[in-house]
Amino acid sequence: MLHDLLFRLRSLMRRSAAENELDDELRFHLERQTDKYVKSGMSEAEALRRARLEFGGLDQVKNECREARGVSLVESLAQDLHYAARTLLHSPAFTACAVLTLALGIGANTAIFSVVNRVLLNPLPYLNPQELLAARQNDSLPNLKDMQRQTNSFTSSGGINIEPMDFTGNGEPVRVHAANVDGGLFATLGVQPMLGRWISAEEDVKGGPRNVVLSYPFWRDFLGADRHVLGRAIRLSDKTYTVIGVMPRNFTPPRELADVFVSLWTGDPEDAPDRSVHSMHTYWRLKPGVRLAQAQAEIAQADRRLAEEFPDTERERGTVLMPLHEWLVGDVRPALLILFGAVGLVLLIACANFAMLLTARAVARQRELMIRASLGARNSRLIRQRLTESTLLALVGGAAGLMAAKVGTTLLLALKPAELHRLDAIPMDARAFMFVFAISLLTGLLFGLLPAWSASRGDIAEALRENARTTATGVSRSPLRSFLVTGELALALILLAGAGLLIKGFLRLRSVDPGFNPANVITMYLQLPGTRYPQIPLQTNFRRELLTRINSFPGVEAAMITDLPLAGNYVGHRVVIDGQPTPAVGTEPEVQTLSVMGNYFGVMQIPIRSGRDFRAMDREQQPRVAIVNEAFVRQLLAGQNPIGTRIDWARSDEPHEWMTIIGVAGDVKHSGLNQPVDPAVYAPFSQNDEAWRKFMTLAIRTRVPVAGLVEDVKKQVWSLDSQIPVSGIQSMDDLLAVSVAQERFNMLLLGSFAALAVALAGVGIYGMVAYRVNQRTHEIGVYIALGAQHRHVLRLVMKDGVKLGLLGIVLGLAGAIALTRVMVSVLFEVNPADPATLIGVALLLAAVAMLACYIPARRALGIHPMTALRHE
């Protein structure tokens, strides 16, 4: 019947017959084929669907006939698109599987691309950001002014230092982030206030007016977005400031969070003229045409002059400039690029599955393609139709991927570490949409081309036989599917290896002893206003009274310290040691300095290795004492008994006020679990001569519920001084978690991508084996009828999948050894070629591959010989 139909159709095309004659001819044979299927037991709807698919669809055959008579390319493409859409709707299971596969791959890629776009690619929100430089290390205001005068490569420069301030007079006192700035900062960044003006050079001087510029969030949240706010007075740390400006909504200083902006001369008048207080981040704007190397040379020359003139504070300092964007993203760039590369492997695996789905579909429809070829359709025409279908599928998958990416970016924001400063939001901008469109289009074209080309090549007479099983089986065994499955497994193993290395490194990091016990410890930040607590006795009385009240709570013991462990911020001092040669000025050893009060070492459960803890008698008017950590002893007192050794701050006024070391405490990780321990000196608050240490953290170990305790502590603070905010409330467990947030972020994301890759690879090898089982139903049935045992059938079905799995694992191991070396910067104490990890992930992937092969093989055992013969 088909041969007769083909002959009549060719004749109609040669005669350029009218469309209605062609319609009648095709409908006649379509109805005959439908009747045939109905008589075989099919429902009428299913019979009609099968007949339409067998003939390639009435409209499609008509369109091919029209093309043979000469149809425009646009019309032909429209016809291809219409037919592809209709065909995909007729195969909902195939369409849903292909779209879901691509949605997972494209969605994951889009989510990570959005992060990369936001952090690495988007330009900074400043004027001509390519001209902006940042100094790697902090500096002081006097140094900044001197370097401004001694260099000619810059149009402007400025500095910023974030310090806490107390905002009062608007309900409960609130701690805010105050930016103490140099007047040139905003001219350097090239940002103008939304309302009002910036602090002028005339105001940015000693004794200048207390003016303040507000951030947009502060203006909105605390002042009700009042557009008449200019000239209004607000209270910051017991001082009155006049509002002169409001910054734009999207403005934030580089790497900083700031609520208000004040001149350093008014915000911190004591430190502003002090050359030794290196607390400002400095930024520089290059003149047009000036290169970074030229600017760096000028800065280095200025550094040398400062070191000669002020050796006490500047001898070992050197200013290194770098592009602002590089300075901002330098810490996170390697991790983001590794994640982007990893998610790219996930996309390749998804695309391989997509290509295998298209190959299987092409095999199932090969007879249809050959019919069209016999009607006169060229190979290019057939390939174009298949590419239209694959591209349409890929674009739909990309649209679904956008929705998946939206969910993914929400999860990324929930997991993001604090180091990703620019990741307060992940918008889907035009660049992200173009990325999705481009990747979807390329996926449809590239991964649809080879299956389309393979399917278009075949023998017409063979395809038109009533039984085309042999051809289908030949295609199913084609090298393309084997190559795709092997590649999937290799890529999945590379991702598994990377995830395994990160997991192992993270577990090792979490196993590092922080030096204290974080369990059941809650912390709160306090800062005493300088106007009411200018002297040490007043500060000491407040601290003692507050500790006395808190320690009276049942089940509570409390202590105070200047800086928390793992917070990464501490004050460094240079020291001299009695009995040792006095080092040259500027070369004295630098140590962490921490003032404490109360039973600090007991509350934090930091062991005293030798000597004793502080006692009540270690107070003002008594001999000065100190406790050092083990790192201090190892690095500065090697080979001698530290107990009784005297130390003092370098370059202090003569005669020395020596502190006697009375104990050695265990090392505490102050800068991070993955950072070395620096020498540290603990001294009592009451014995230090540093009235500027008005900030402190209250550490409370408790056996009572925390929620009620926090409110009780606040009441005690406000009963002593109602204008002191209580902020930074967090447990030490939370602080410990925050300190490893970057490592957890990397591990979770790469682990998720690896799990997705393994799942996709497992689905791929399962699909291949299941498809081969389906194609070999007759062979398996005969095999069983001849008495084959179950193990023989399993071996017959699984051997190809197992071979491909082993090959993929071997290739994946080679790739993992080569590629995981780029992960050195994000691994903690783990070799990128760690044998245990590589063997473990290889065994895991082998188990997944075996399971994926076994499931369809097990189903093959249930094939009945008679069923197999009917299938044939």
Total count of helical runs of at least 4 residues: 30
Helix percentage range: 40-55%
The residue ranges in which pLDDT falls below 50 over 5 or more consecutive positions are 12-23, 463-476
The portion of residues forming beta strands comes to 5-15%
Strand order of the largest sheet: 2-3-8-5-7-6
- Average pLDDT figure: 82
Number of strands: 21
Tell me, briefly, the overall form: elongated
Major sheet size, sense and barrel closure:
6 strands, mixed, barrel
| CA-based gyration radius | 37 Å
Q: Which structural class do the helices and strands define? A: alpha+beta
Distance between the termini: 21 Å
Properties at a glance:
872 residues, alpha+beta, 6-stranded mixed barrel, 6-stranded mixed β-barrel, 30 helices, 21 strands
Describe the protein in words.
The protein is built from 30 helices and 21 strands. The model is unreliable at 12-23 and 463-476 (pLDDT under 50). The chain is of the alpha+beta class. The relative contact order is 0.10. It is elongated, with a radius of gyration of 37 Å.
Outline of the structure:
The chain is an alpha+beta fold and 872 residues long.
Any chance you could write out the topology, listing elements then pairs?
Elements: H1 2-14, H2 19-39, H3 44-54, H4 58-69, H5 73-90, H6 92-121, E1 132-135, H7 141-150, E2 154-168, E3 174-181, H8 185-189, E4 195-196, E5 211-214, H9 216-223, E6 233-236, E7 239-246, E8 260-263, H10 264-267, E9 281-286, H11 292-309, H12 311-314, E10 321-323, H13 324-329, H14 333-364, H15 366-374, H16 379-415, H17 430-456, H18 460-463, H19 469-476, H20 479-510, E11 521-527, H21 536-551, E12 556-561, E13 571-577, E14 590-598, H22 600-604, E15 608-611, E16 625-629, H23 630-636, E17 646-649, E18 659-665, E19 680-684, E20 695-702, H24 706-720, E21 727-731, H25 732-739, H26 741-775, H27 777-785, H28 790-819, H29 835-860, H30 865-871
Parallel strand pairs: 3-8, 5-7, 14-19, 16-18
Antiparallel strand pairs: 1-9, 1-10, 2-3, 2-6, 2-9, 4-7, 5-8, 6-7, 11-20, 11-21, 12-14, 12-20, 13-14, 13-17, 15-18, 16-19, 17-18
Helix pairs in contact: 1-2, 2-3, 4-5, 5-16, 6-14, 6-16, 6-17, 7-11, 14-17, 14-19, 14-20, 14-26, 16-17, 19-26, 20-26, 20-28, 20-29, 21-24, 26-28, 26-29, 27-30, 28-29
